[in-house]
Amino acid sequence: xxxxxxxxxxxxxxxxxxxxxxxxxxxxxxxxxxxxxxxxxxxxxxxxxxxxxxxxxxxxxxxxxxxxxxxxxxxxxxxxxxx
Amino acid sequence: xxxxxxxxxxxxxxxxxxxxxxxxxxxxxxxxxxxxxxxxxxxxxxxxxxxxxxxxxxxxxxxxxxxxxxxxxxxxxxxxxxxxxxxxxxxxxxxxxxxxxxxxxxxxxxxxxxxxxxxxxxxxxxxxxxxxxxxxxxxxxxxxxxxxxxxxxxxxxxxxxxxxxxxxxxxxxxxxxxxxxxxxxxxxxxxxxxxxxxxxxxxxxxx
Lengths: 83, 207
Fold this sequence. Notes:
The structure holds 2 protein chains of 2 kinds.
Chain A: H1 3-15, H2 22-32, H3 34-57, H4 62-77
Chain B: H1 14-23, H2 27-49, H3 52-68, H4 79-98, H5 128-131, H6 134-146, H7 150-161, H8 166-173, H9 177-199
């Protein structure tokens, strides 16, 4: 397996949708190619950091949620769902 | 309803009942749907537009549009996925307006080959989140994701941050599953490459 072939399968590998014998080829390639091993590890770290940090950082404060919800409901009352 | 019937054993998603009640004019049911999904819609809009005020407007516009189009929701996809699709379209429209009519679509800039091939193979420090303060790390992450084309940013946000499945991401973005996979790979590789300069093990720092 080449690095390009490995990269092409990386998304499926993360999703856990790769079956043998391809799975064995992927694991063998990772064991033998330090570049691809680092790439996989750091991509996983990238996903982890964004998921952890951004969900926290982009949380709406409760008063803002209430304000937006009230504004939405007010507008909805002015326009019933069309049929 | 002119849809394929689900097998009797398959459970109906609780949102379907809420939507049906809302269609019948039950305000509390629609308010419940807002409570369930406003935070996710805000995060998605914030990610795509990279602007807090736009994201607040998009939350309002998304739910209002959903309310007006409730009759179009047939229950053959998840209500949340349907909502996300509206939010993504609203977000791209905002970007387009902000950039003064320059076309912004799911396809913008994604033809680039940049980031298709990894170049930086340095290992990262095992605890990058400890290396920077909360504010500093947040700034690095924002700067990094801002550099991605909106089409890549949307795929990464839905699939990796909000944890939608590949199929749901495809449905929400109006893309094929192979297109989502290909964009996701390139979005992940580009972000990894750009973050690498901040996260890699520095000289003299042991693992």
